[in-house]
Amino acid sequence: MTGMAELPKPRPLHELDTVYDFLDDVRLRPSMYVRGSSVLHLQSVLYGYSVACEIHGAPAMRDFEHFGPFSEWLWPRLDMQHSSPQGWAVEIERAAEAAGNPPLDMFFHLLDEFRAERDDTLQDAPR
User: Its domain of life (predicted)?
Assistant: First the structure.
């Protein structure tokens, strides 16, 4: 099969350094990590990740907290003027259902946009 790009392979957990490395692995094997492709279940996994970081003294992962950077970035993209008391996972699932898209696919699409904009912002920051 020449000419086909090789798909990325999942890495062992001990090789994952950040929550984003973990999410890249979840994207490759969603059914291994997320029951029923539910964004709500993914949010619970990320909460557990955050708790584990706190317990083990690793740098805190705040991006996916209820009112964290991802949710604050998300509201305008979902045409919401204010944050949702339901949280980002519920609102992504609602938006995906309304658009007829799989919720986990929508989450990863939004995550890619969030990361790209964040990377651009970090590159543009004065040094």
Answer: Bacteria
CA 127 to chain centre: 28
- Residue from 53, 26, 35, 47 nearest 107 by CA: 26
> What is the distance between the alpha carbons of residues 12 and 10, in angstroms, rounded to a whole number?
7
Rounded to 5°, the CA angle 58-64-67 comes to 115
Backbone angles phi, psi at 57, to 5 degrees: 75, 15
What pLDDT is stored for residue 7 in this prediction? 65
Global pTM value: 0.84
Asked whether the CA dihedral 48, 51, 52, 58 is positive or negative, the reply is: positive
